[in-house]
Amino acid sequence: MRMVASVNVQLPAEVDAALGTLADKFNLSREEVLQRVLGFSVGGPGQAAVPKPAPTTVAKDGSLVALIDAGSIAVGDPLIFERPRAGQVFTAVVADRGWIELPDGSRFASPSPAAEACVGGSQSGWECWTHDASGKTLHTLRDELKRRH
């Protein structure tokens, strides 16, 4: 990777530790972790990091479309994913056509990949995400919808 500028940044100890944990987990350097978190794709040796292309819009409906159609949730509604023991809170919104959109603009057709993108590991998104307005998990809302029909 070609270095254009060098900047020294002091990080709080807990941030540095988290960065080190991710670097070890994915066998990356701390710089590569930061580049990926900031949305840059990491090239091979001697290649500069470049911004990732914008995600393409997909025409298919996402998994939440039935909940939207039933009026259980609405486009624009906030979703919350809390991990109290880890001290983490993630947010997303219900996007058009039943997709889930994270704050960085990435969109997912179903809850589990959205949750996995937040934590970097396997998650049951239907159980993780809570619809902020109702206080119910997406799993509960889906079960309620099934019982009505």
Describe the fold and architecture.
The protein has 149 residues and is α+β, with helices and mostly antiparallel strands. It folds into 2 domains: 13-51, no CATH class; 65-148. 34% of the residues lie in helices and 17% in strands. It has 6 helices and 8 strands. It has helices spanning 13-25, 30-37, 65-69, 111-119, 125-128, 138-148, and strands at 40-41, 50-51, 78-83, 88-94, 100-101, 107-108, 130-131, 136-137. A 6-stranded antiparallel sheet has the order 6-5-4-3-7-8. Strands 1-2 form a two-stranded antiparallel sheet. Helix 1 (13-25) crosses helix 2 (30-37). The protein is elongated and about 60 Å long. The mean pLDDT is 82.
List keywords for this structure.
2 domains, 34% helix, 149 residues, single chain, 6 helices, six-stranded antiparallel β-sheet, alpha+beta
Low-pLDDT segments, ≥5 res: none
Measured distance between first and last alpha carbons: 56 Å
SSE pattern: HHEEHEEEEHHEEH
Number of strands: 8
The helix-and-strand class reads: alpha+beta
**Kindly state the mean pLDDT as a whole number?**
82
| Fraction of residues in H or I helices | 25-40%
Q: Major sheet, described briefly?
A: 6 strands, antiparallel
Strand order of the largest sheet: 6-5-4-3-7-8
| Helix run count | 6
Estimate nothing, just give the exact number of structural domains. 2
Beta-strand percent range: 15-25%
Shape: elongated
